[in-house]
């Protein structure tokens, strides 16, 4: 316990690896009841959809919902289409808005920084874990949809938008690919949420602001007068996953989306870093 | 350890929030190996100073040296050697005590994951929380959270431990345990900086102290130095003039206590220089037929000094 021990102690290596902190952060997120409540609510979307179709038959509603009765695999596609505009941004807003502000409001932020977790290191890990949540959320919707569809409806080969028919197992692969596309689509919103989270000590405020921005972007995206702006909205490719249902797959929209979301991550990541690195932690 | 022998040194340290100056040109010197009491009423700038020492807040002006390195520039290499409890404990209420410690230990770069659970168990044992390790922190009492906060500071061996109001919310047993914990750490060579407004605490524990008032340092030094070393003797007697003559022979300049009321016996007060023994004075007084009804030797307590320096009132000054 003497000073000399501290300097030579094998327990203390130099260097700033992120591995242990990243694992700890993931454990923290997925040990929270709130996280499971969010994922549970997302899983409920395809379940409600499938049960409603099962009970009422295929009459009424958008055609993609009616298709569920014919092929259970469509439940996954239908559910993600329903979840993209509101439910997914809502859960992502909660997780991203909580990243820094949540730690500040618990009083744990100062202890992490004294430890010292390092401000840049902590921010990167927080962002990475929030992005991991995006993937978990999108996968939850799609996988829950495939499972409930499998349970309630017949399953067979799927006819793609380009008219080709693919076997059921390939359709499952396409569904998972769509989940990845949607998860990437949410990275920009996550970066915005993390940035807002560095501005405040009130997590609910950061969550609400993030969700409001996601809705605003979609409203702007629906105004044809602003069409010049549309390619630059972070929500531009939220429904671009139709291209993944063609044969051969059209990757243009997928690639554009990756570039766009990376751009948002860099811009708002830099803003978050600029703010967080210089900020006085008074919580 | 450092060339200057100081674990913490600040020069002209100032922190402004807008137009409000929370800390004004502070020159703090915490000797290496000391238990340093950091005193001051609420709102006097203690916690703001501690936040700056730990690189949580940036100074508006001035320099900070912690363990020989400049802060906040060198915080990545300095902070692993520093353990701290700042402005109350902060934990994840949905995790157990042990899981919370594991989280903070994992956040520290370069700690070994193999020995992590052993470190956590040892830190819990040192603050007497082993039995509550698996309980959720949300169900902890304030005192238990406070102990867990101290456990975070003890996860790795440290050269400096900063404890901001460590006995807040603790029962008398807990307070005693914290005190013996601090003594134990200090005996191992760790410098301990304790902020408190509980003077009895500091007086029992510390070797050095600093007193803040309204963002400024009003006194700093060894404890005896701070207290004021000179004692005073008080003699209760109806024979004031005679007694004063006797005391003058010893070179004591006595003054009659004017505040004494009619029904009580008058008193003489005099500063008692080193080398003059009170028993000699009494023998001499009695030999001179002074009717001595009471004698008392007083050393000013730290509390007297504290109140003298920081004022009586409860009010936050700014």
UniProtKB/TrEMBL annotation, chain A:
Transmembrane segments: 36-57, 77-101, 122-155, 175-197, 204-223, 258-277
One Pfam family of this chain: ABC2_membrane_4
Keywords of the record: Membrane, Transmembrane, Transmembrane helix
KW Transmembrane (keyword) present: yes
This protein's name: ABC transporter permease
Organism from which the protein derives: Labedella endophytica
TrEMBL record, chain B:
Origin superkingdom: Bacteria
Molecular function terms from GO: ATP binding; ATP hydrolysis activity
Residue span(s) of domain ABC transporter: 8-239
The keyword Nucleotide-binding appears for this protein: yes
SUPFAM superfamilies, sorted: P-loop containing nucleoside triphosphate hydrolases
Keywords: ATP-binding, Nucleotide-binding, Transport
Keyword Transport among record annotations: yes
One Pfam family per UniProt: ABC_tran
Record SMART domains: AAA
Family as reported in the entry's similarity comment: Belongs to the ABC transporter superfamily.
Identification of the protein by name: ATP-binding cassette domain-containing protein
Organism, as annotated: Labedella endophytica
Taxonomic classification: Bacteria, Bacillati, Actinomycetota, Actinomycetes, Micrococcales
